[in-house]
């Protein structure tokens, strides 16, 4: 398949993915919106509802990216991008759809498998972008860095929701203790992934999610300040993640991913 056809398939699959996501958000797949299901299986690391506005940023970047790849399909960099990441992008779209549909039908445990495959696929895309970097290209690394980061933390929350659905007792350990452990472990895992993909945008949506977690823990409509230690961990985690992003940016010589000299 040539670059032009790949670019069109990217655009079509993204459009289908956006439609399915919209249907899921409006509760038109199984009569329940994503938020309603998330509220049903609420966890101590569920971010505030406003945090999910990041999806508009992610999908705006994706729309711009696939259009640019179509328009500039003959540009050497974007031609390499189309050849390297298109199939992976198609897989990510299919996994995105499968995740939305399974979650909409409250098959939370099954949705964990889809979102895990989803974030792994996006991580591989980020690695592929490292291999084709030309000069200081930023659009695709920024788009997929933010996309991967958000799905990374969404994966953590999704797994926690599955445990809530199963009514797991946490071996008798307090749920707040588990939540603290999860937030700390997530940062360690993020650093390990960052060492592989070297994308300075990757920690940013995770930092945003930690701020959302802090907000919901503090808010009257959330947990109303009941978990002070967890609030502190979420806030400190947010700051730490921002610092990690800055450090990676400096290591990349102020580029989203490492600069490649022409």
UniProtKB/TrEMBL annotation:
<feature type="transmembrane region" description="Helical">
    <location>
        <begin position="200"/>
        <end position="217"/>
    </location>
</feature>
<protein>
    <submittedName>
        <fullName>TspO and MBR related protein</fullName>
    </submittedName>
</protein>
<keyword id="KW-0812">Transmembrane</keyword>
<feature type="transmembrane region" description="Helical">
    <location>
        <begin position="176"/>
        <end position="195"/>
    </location>
</feature>
<keyword id="KW-0472">Membrane</keyword>
<keyword id="KW-1133">Transmembrane helix</keyword>
<feature type="transmembrane region" description="Helical">
    <location>
        <begin position="138"/>
        <end position="164"/>
    </location>
</feature>
<feature type="transmembrane region" description="Helical">
    <location>
        <begin position="82"/>
        <end position="101"/>
    </location>
</feature>
<feature type="transmembrane region" description="Helical">
    <location>
        <begin position="7"/>
        <end position="32"/>
    </location>
</feature>
<dbReference type="InterPro" id="IPR038330">
    <property type="entry name" value="TspO/MBR-related_sf"/>
</dbReference>
<feature type="transmembrane region" description="Helical">
    <location>
        <begin position="229"/>
        <end position="250"/>
    </location>
</feature>
<feature type="transmembrane region" description="Helical">
    <location>
        <begin position="107"/>
        <end position="126"/>
    </location>
</feature>
<feature type="transmembrane region" description="Helical">
    <location>
        <begin position="52"/>
        <end position="70"/>
    </location>
</feature>
